[in-house]
Structures
1.
Amino acid sequence: MTTYIKRLMKGITAVLVLLVLAACGQSTQNDADQAADSPADDQTTESVAEGELQDVELTLDWYPNANHVPIYTALKHGYFEEAGLNVTLKMPAEADDPIRLVGANQTDIAVSYPGVLMKARAEDIPVKAFGSLVQRRLDAIMYKEESGIQSPKDLEGKKIGYASDSISEEIIYSMVEEDGGDASKVEMIDVGYDLMPALSTDNVDALISAYMNHEYLLLEDEGYNMGHFEFQDYGIPENQELIFIASDQTIDERSDVLTKFMTALQKGYETAVENPDEAIETLFENEENEYALDKDIEIQSWKEFLIEYMSADGEFGTIDPAQYEEYAKWIYERGAIDSELTGEDLTAPAL
């Protein structure tokens, strides 16, 4: 599962085009809104007050997997409806769909990643994080034990597979330097989505952009003796992994909906923690045929990683603007983005 998408910058360019088109459409809609009479407005307000569900479209980051257990649990148990929301899910047709669609107001909410958000915001795309799904990093530097790698310094002279992302490159270089190595001696190999095959066939010596609760577990299951080291142990600021994003317009106009969404999702998480086996069954009821899941791996992912990682900051769903600002500052200082961003630029906590 790739953390940072290969076609990110192409997607960000597409967002900018869509924003122009959306602005034109908004102008026409504003004229229509001004022509509407007040009784119709009163009727709309009254219908919502009487309990009519508000439609919310959520675009996932990837196919259904254990990372999405709280979402499917909340849907199954009716927690969104209890909050007054009619939540529908949309699978991304392309890897850049979540950031692209949210930025152009073509979906209400999407699951994304802090690094993707920061790159987009640095390009003036009007999106922010309002809640978290996974509060601790899932990716790490992973390698086969037989490679002799024991610390980042040992990556000198090695090939590192990654998913075409400048932030991943800077993380590798910084960790090697922090460990007293020479980053210029590291060879970065863009393997796209083929992270596991690249390592298993020895086309690369180590991976970044792969998940501990997915690729790492699958490689172990295939019989490889795996090792890894964590980013934060070598000077990389901590940050969350999976987040919920919305456009500035949605945040300004529907903040109550976002709060209801996160509150319902908290209940989904709590129920899934209390009944983990049932939660995994719920996930498999929504499995996409195109992306078959390994049940044992998903169970291990949920029980050994995600239950803890989703509330690592104390409470499921919360975000800390100061943490985002610190990580964005690090990315900027490493040259991976061109604009310095604040926590306010990047976040609008719903909880």
Note: Residues 143 and 227 are 5 Å apart (CA to CA).
2.
Amino acid sequence: MAGMMSQKNNTLIFISAGALFLLWVMILSATSAKVGKTYTNPVLVETFIIQREQPDNFSGVLGIGDPAVLFHNGTYYLYPTGDNSGYDVYISADLVNWKKGPRVFGSTEPGVWAPDVFYNAKNRKFYLYYTVNGRIGVAISDRPDGVFKDQGTLIENAIDAHMFQDQDSQYYLYYVQYPGFRIHVQPMDSPVRKKGGPVQIIQATDAWEKKQAALTEAPWMLKHRGAYYLLYSAGGADSQDYAIGYASATSPLGPFSKYSGNPIIKKGDSIFGPGHCSVTKSSDGQLWMVYHQQKNGSRGWNRIICIDPLRFDEKGILRGRPSRATPRPAPNVKG
């Protein structure tokens, strides 16, 4: 009998210990879910020493900037302005931790700026819209991290291309006249072939768009509940006054009405010159802008890559807030 009681007590102790362990695991899991992961800007920093005479004269430090982000098959691909002679791709699973990948495009000409990469599901090809020496061209690859083969010039005297495909499968190429810095849209018959002529849709008219320099650039299109939202940057691109606003329309060709509360992303609280954004989503459908800030308040091109959430409120107004050196909840990604 004593042996049986001892065995019973040992069994109860084992069960109790197991239950306590299970309870402890559940508490840790709940705490982890409650706290969650965080990120702190900047998420990507790299600098280059640049010496060029064209398309404008510049000599000095240039920080990585003008990011275009593409999400494909569970991975984020980032294509920024870098050493001004080509584009490298940066790869991430979570928008926070980036690894530098291969060089995907190079040029013997100067002024390789502000790319965009578009995936065409119809033929499963990737299209790089490049800026080289003040003109826009297109190159094609079978992979987002593969070498893009040049297909030639699309638009002369232009920079900052962005390809948008509407839900009816129609293509629209947004770009910036250079010089002049007016935003246009070019209807496209395909990712490489124009259809008709361009339409001018945005130019610098408001005070914030004329700080340091009168310009509008870096177009990026979003569609929300049937309306078209064109994000763009304005003010001196090498200054702390660079900022992001948007205009909306009922057609991708406009006419566009600028939001009265522009700019929606601007300097303040140790944030300088936030601008030139692209937009993607995390696994939960949250919008994320990927953009650059100036490293400090000095005039120049020493930029850093940052991410922050965007959202549409109940009235359809686009909201966002830049951050710097402050932990924020990280993108929710499946892993």
Note: The helical segments are 2-35.
3.
Amino acid sequence: MRASQGGIATAYRASSERCQRREVRAQRATRGAELRRATPAPEASNTDSYAAALALLQDRRLVVLTGAGVSTDSGIPDYRSPGSPSRQPMTYQQFISGPQERQRYWARSHLGWRRMGSAVPNAGHRALAAIDPELLITQNVDGLHEQAAPELASGGRIVTLHGRVSDVICLSCRTLSPRRDLQERMEALNAGWAEAHADVESRPDGDVALEETQDFVVPDCEICGGILKPDVVFFGENVPKDRVARCMAAVDALAEPGLELRDERQGKGVLLVAGSSLAVMSGYRFVRRAAKAGIPVVIVNRGATRGDEDAAYKLEVGTSEFLTTLASRRA
């Protein structure tokens, strides 16, 4: 097993380093956009722009891309909106590099899961269920879209781009299991841990601010004894190709006017981005694809995004507020 892990680490090291360099460039680009913009994109204070964005979205086919900002009203913090805490997420290469890194990850995630696992969908999630997009692409791993819109989920119209933190995968035998089962095992092996650290600060993606993790006991796979990992895409990993292809096809379909659709909406569709800074390419690529094809893009996010210059409208308002209004217009 030790040799196998070393081989995996070697194989992913270059990919991880390239990913980190891309993220640094993306963050610089986002900060640069804030400094370069002499004339800001339309904001909610501009009533005409707000009304025009709603009018554009009211009767068009929609593909929706959501980020962490959609879940903040459910009590889950994000990490790129103004005032958010700094974040240094663990990379895949770090996770597989040794037991100490996995101990640090699981000790913190064990506490964060107790909070994220109790979160419920907010008005924005419920509004998206009513909006009924052609496809809902989410970068979030919290599972709240699936809870709010079970019909979309069962119909295959929700793509969890980065996976779901409620699932766990064994890196050896590839067995998938529910996170709640692992949570129970960790609680049994670490009695009193959660109570002793109940006051630690919450961070995005089910993480917490905790450094002393050396006493935490991490379970192995019950089937083969392998390494357990949340079934989410870490920095340094790639989004599965089939997920990307599904999303790209949905975006491309927005360019086709006059189709006979299930909801009979006609004309070129719109890509709506809600609650994402688009700092990572996994989401931003869909904005680039749409803009290149002449598909209108509307971005609703507090703070600058990487895609502001590609947007027909950029609205700096809360996502729950805007999505609720849009749902009522499309009803």
Note: Confidence is low (pLDDT under 50) at residues 1-45, 258-264.
